[in-house]
Design a protein that fits this description.
Elements: H1 3-13, H2 16-19, H3 23-28, E1 32-34, E2 37-42, E3 50-54, H4 61-66, E4 70-73, H5 94-102, E5 109-110, H6 127-139, H7 152-163, H8 168-171, E6 175-181, H9 182-196, E7 201-206, H10 212-218, E8 222-227, E9 229-230, E10 235-236, H11 238-247, E11 253-257, H12 270-282, E12 286-291, H13 306-313, E13 319-323, E14 335-341, H14 345-363, H15 369-378, H16 381-411, H17 419-423, E15 428-430, H18 435-445, E16 447-448, E17 454-456, H19 465-476
Parallel strand pairs: 5-16, 7-8, 7-11, 11-12, 12-13
Antiparallel strand pairs: 1-2, 2-3, 3-4, 6-14, 9-10, 13-14, 15-17
Helix pairs in contact: 6-15, 7-15, 9-10, 9-14, 11-12, 12-13, 16-19, 18-19
The structure holds ligand PLA.
Enzyme class: transferase
EC number: 2.6.1.1
GO cellular component, one term: mitochondrion
């Protein structure tokens, strides 16, 4: 008998009082059976009793929970288990792709999510990734589980990629590292670990990648913001940033974008990073780097790690999350790493054990294919050089689109300054368009960018750049 039908049949056999889940009734009644199964109330103290479906329970309440094969219902009077579920709003970034796909306008443009497109507007697989993939297929590998911490060789090369071959803590075996479900998964795991070990807050730049806020909130942390960007001047608000970091409680965790800040495209200079490092030292802050665009900032993946490397050299025990979605174009493969610099190898081992304790009940262990690709590329000097060159190619194409977009807007006679479009780096142009302008761009011109005016330059091509510039001009002029 199907579970649901069985539940309904049982529901009819229960006295009305039980159907309404009256706690007093449940506290005195015993299980109600059908065939060899019983429906038994557990959690008798709470108002919302849970009925479990399975073989008969023993008398202790912990055993009662243990015997459960499935949770059938908590209030038999509902038409559906899900009738109380309100409709959630679409995701502010991924939801744009959904809306874009439904749009049948022929010249529609998706510049919402940061996903690189070639100049023909198509998803791009790096040739070196294809090459590695072909080699992997030929090797006819098995599909056994990874360990909880993922593929050890991947973690090894991923960490060297970020920290550099000469990194002292790496050489001293005092960096704990695990493979994660890309950047998002790493952020969540570390957020949970922070929360478990006493952190109540995390400080993120204002603005930041939108998903940082629910990731850390869901991990149990209160998200607080430090100043980062001055909308009026389209510049880094560096004094505001330093003042805010100086004022936050000692020992707090501060999230920093390692390079190509999302959404503003404005990074501190190396001198400014040094000042941030000094304040972090004075206040004993925990710098937590989100490195999602290594290679997309300067075009040189090695150079883009300069800030986090400097923090390690300055003696900070940083935490770092790496994403291989953008630089390696492995978006859907979910390839990432989380690492923590510790004082000693023993401390690193203990940190690693805690990361694993969080991963195991969450998703058990990470997927293998994407990690094998990255591992193959970064284990070979030749393939790494090819990767650097191909990543540089993507960054250069984006840069050329920045210039073209700005020039076209200027040629159209825009009265606004678009200088920031070429000053910013990385995947995004933080255009300065208002919410109303963004909505008009979507409704009138079928161009999809996020409500904060962020345009994914990775989706701008020689073919659509003029269309985009004209549309922006149309919705911004005279406003
Ligand atoms: N950190 C930052 C700063 C990001 O911008 C993103 C992705 C991630 C982490 C996570 O990426 P991953 O889980 O794929 O590794 N931001 C994208 C995509 C590109 C998204 O929103 O999921 C964006 O459009 O902002």
């Amino acid at each position: 008998m199907m579970l649901r039908q069985a539940a309904q049949a049982l529901s009819r056999r229960l006295p009305t009082t039980a159907r309404r889940s009256s706690p007093s009734f449940l506290a005195t009644t015993s299980s109600v059976g059908i065939d060899n199964f019983v429906l038994t109330p557990v959690n008798l103290q709470s108002k919302r009793d849970i009925w479990v479906w399975g073989s008969p329970p023993s008398s202790s309440s912990s055993n009662r929970r243990g015997f459960a094969d499935a949770v059938v219902d908590h209030e038999m009077t509902h038409d559906s288990h899900w009738s109380q579920f309100p409709m959630a709003p679409p995701d502010p970034i991924i939801g744009l792709t959904e809306a874009y796909l439904k749009d049948d306008f022929p010249d529609k443009v998706n510049v919402g999510v940061g996903a690189y497109r070639c100049d023909q507007g198509m998803p791009f697989v790096l040739p070196v990734v294809r090459e590695a993939e072909n080699e992997l297929v030929a090797e006819e590998l098995d599909h056994e589980y990874s360990g909880i911490a993922g593929c050890p060789n991947f973690v090894d090369v991923a960490l060297k990629f970020a920290y550099g071959d000469d990194c002292v803590p790496l050489k001293e075996n005092r960096v704990a590292g695990v493979q994660t479900l890309s950047g998002t998964g790493g952020l969540r795991v570390f957020g949970e670990v922070l929360h478990q070990f006493g952190h109540k807050h995390i400080y993120v730049p204002n603005p930041t990648w939108g998903n940082h806020i629910p990731i850390f909130t869901n991990a149990g942390l209160e998200v607080r913001k430090y100043r980062y960007y001055d909308n009026a001047t389209s510049n880094l608000d560096f004094n505001g940033l330093l003042d805010d970091l100086q004022a936050i409680p000692e020992g707090s965790c501060v999230l920093l974008h390692a390079c190509a800040h999302n959404p503003t495209g404005m990074d501190p200079t190396m001198e400014q990073w040094k000042q941030i490092s000094n304040v972090a030292k004075e206040r004993n802050l925990l710098p937590f780097f989100d490195c999602a665009y290594q290679g997309f900032a300067s075009g040189d993946a090695r150079k883009d790690a300069a800030a986090l490397r400097m923090f390690v050299e300055d003696g900070h025990n940083i935490a770092l999350v790496q994403s291989f979605s953008k630089n390696f174009g492995l978006y859907g493969q979910r390839v990432g790493a989380l690492s923590v610099v510790a004082d000693t190898p023993d401390e690193a081992k203990r940190v690693l054990s805690q990361l694993k304790v969080h991963i195991r009940p969450s998703y058990s262990n990470p997927p293998r294919h994407g990690a094998r690709i990255v591992s193959k590329i970064l284990s070979s000097e030749k393939k790494t050089d090819e990767f650097v060159e191909q990543c540089m190619g993507m960054a250069k194409r984006i840069d050329s689109m920045r210039i073209k977009l700005r020039n076209t807007l200027e040629e159209l006679g825009s009265s606004r300054s678009w200088e920031h479009v070429t000053k910013q780096i990385g995947m995004f142009a933080y255009s300065g368009m208002s919410k109303d302008e963004v909505v008009a761009l979507r409704e009138k011109h079928h161009i999809y960018c996020t409500l904060d005016g962020r345009i994914s330059m990775a989706g701008v091509t020689s073919k659509n750049v003029e269309y985009i510039a004209k549309a922006i001009h149309d919705v911004t002029e005279g406003k």
